[in-house]
């Protein structure tokens, strides 16, 4: 997918617009499965929350992946996309027992992360096998907002609560068929996975009917040239060896599962925006674009880095710009970033726009959410139309405040 392809997409579908490269998604999927090719039973569950467009789900299902879901709506999207419910795992946090029961009726693997719901669900549905999410108390992740396995995290059942967990399982007669963890996102040090795996293997010994062990995800992808990333190949070699040794000790060949989201789709995405105005102040040159944190919130929310290239002038002289949005609050995508010379009307391309970008967008300032396009086999395919004014009004109810005259 060249710059000319991207410019043609922006011209045809308008800006801003999200574009995803199917070949990159497939390449990432194959790289992950290849890294663990020595494992006989490997299961990949794509984390739907990263990018939930139904065409993306259909494509990922075609690759052979299952789905990792966190809401009943994501489960329903997966089933609508044609994914077999048996290939879907449901790992919610803080949802009601009612929602979990509704999902269980759909034939989806349930993963429970707190003792209260585990006891209630086990008491009412002892014959439904359940996976449990363990909090290994391992601090990992790119920043505090995406670190979820530490001692103060709301996620998972503390490893120190194992005696109580076992008592609940025994009292209810329920079957634990899987054990799960997820320590955070953007993990660079594979030793974190190895350390957490030892904790998880220890916990797994408490349950005799396991079918799988799920290590979540959190693999770091590169955000700029020369950026470091998780060494998937080294992780595959080391974790596979430990996993096979554990299966031998356990006396049963288990399934090894992962739940990549960002790893599969982040690098596939480009976000295209048009420059509305170049504004020079006493200290800064601003490039004001036709979007804001209503469409791409990650830089403001996480402080995340997205490479920005001027694809309208890719070979021009470089200057320093602060790229900002049109929202009536501070929405700065980049400060004093070196970019080839920008003029009004140019198209800027944001990299790593496949994960947690469109899926976290909103209608703030009553702006329309953008279109989505999938680049598949050398062609652009519209997979979501740009919103219209009718979409803003849909589901709103306008009251009539006209005063009726007295007779």
TrEMBL record:
Keywords for the protein's UniProt record, in alphabetical order: Amino-acid biosynthesis, Decarboxylase, Lyase, Lysine biosynthesis, Pyridoxal phosphate
Residue ranges of every copy of the Orn/DAP/Arg decarboxylase 2 N-terminal domain listed in the record: 23-266
Catalytic residues in the record: 328
A matching Pfam family: Orn_Arg_deC_N
Domain Orn/DAP/Arg decarboxylase 2 C-terminal: 18-354
Needed cofactors: pyridoxal 5'-phosphate
PROSITE patterns tied to this protein: ODR_DC_2_1
Pathways per UniProt: Amino-acid biosynthesis; L-lysine biosynthesis via DAP pathway; L-lysine from DL-2,6-diaminopimelate: step 1/1
Residues bearing PTM N6-(pyridoxal phosphate)lysine: 49
Lyase among keywords: yes
NCBIfam families given in the database record: lysA (TIGR01048)
Function: Specifically catalyzes the decarboxylation of meso-diaminopimelate (meso-DAP) to L-lysine.
Similarity section: Belongs to the Orn/Lys/Arg decarboxylase class-II family. LysA subfamily.
Protein name: Diaminopimelate decarboxylase
Organism: Zunongwangia profunda (strain DSM 18752 / CCTCC AB 206139 / SM-A87) (Wangia profunda)
Gene field: lysA
């Amino acid at each position: 997918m060249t710059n000319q392809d991207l410019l043609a997409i922006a011209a045809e579908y308008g800006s801003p617009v999200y574009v995803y490269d199917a070949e990159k998604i497939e390449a990432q999927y194959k790289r992950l499965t290849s890294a663990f090719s020595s494992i006989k039973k490997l299961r990949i569950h794509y984390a739907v929350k990263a990018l939930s467009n139904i065409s993306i789900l259909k494509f990922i299902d075609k690759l052979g992946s299952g789905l990792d879901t966190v809401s009943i709506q994501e489960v329903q999207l997966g089933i609508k996309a044609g994914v077999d419910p048996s290939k879907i795992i449901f790992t919610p946090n803080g949802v009601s027992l009612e929602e979990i029961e509704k999902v269980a009726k759909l034939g989806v693997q349930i993963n429970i992360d707190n003792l209260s719901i585990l006891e209630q669900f086990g008491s009412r549905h002892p014959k439904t096998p359940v996976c449990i999410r363990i909090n290994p108390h391992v601090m990992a992740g790119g920043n505090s907002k995406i670190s979820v396995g530490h001692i103060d995290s709301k996620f998972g059942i503390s490893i120190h609560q194992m005696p109580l967990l076992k008592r609940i399982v025994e009292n209810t007669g329920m079957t634990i068929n899987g054990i799960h963890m997820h320590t955070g996102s953007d993990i660079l040090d594979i030793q974190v996975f190895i350390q957490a795996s030892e904790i998880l293997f220890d916990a797994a010994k408490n349950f005799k009917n396991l079918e799988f062990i799920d290590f979540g995800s959190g693999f770091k992808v590169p955000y700029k040239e020369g950026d470091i990333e998780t060494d998937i190949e080294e992780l595959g070699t080391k974790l596979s060896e430990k996993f096979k040794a554990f299966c031998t000790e356990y006396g049963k060949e288990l399934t090894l599962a992962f739940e990549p989201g960002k790893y599969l789709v982040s690098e596939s995405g480009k976000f295209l925006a048009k420059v509305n105005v170049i504004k020079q102040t006493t200290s800064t040159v601003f490039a004001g674009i036709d979007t804001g944190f209503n469409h791409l919130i990650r830089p403001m929310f996480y402080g995340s880095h997205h490479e920005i290239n001027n694809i309208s002038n890719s070979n021009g002289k470089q200057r320093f710009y602060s790229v900002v949005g049109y929202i009536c609050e501070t929405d700065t995508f980049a400060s004093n970033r070196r970019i080839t010379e920008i003029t009004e009307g140019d198209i800027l391309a944001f990299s790593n726009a496949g994960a947690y970008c469109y899926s976290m967008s909103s209608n703030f300032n009553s702006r329309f959410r953008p279109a989505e396009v999938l680049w598949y086999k050398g062609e652009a395919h519209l997979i979501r139309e740009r919103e219209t004014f009718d979409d803003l009004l849909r589901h709103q109810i306008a009251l009539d405040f006209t005063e009726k005259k007295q007779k």
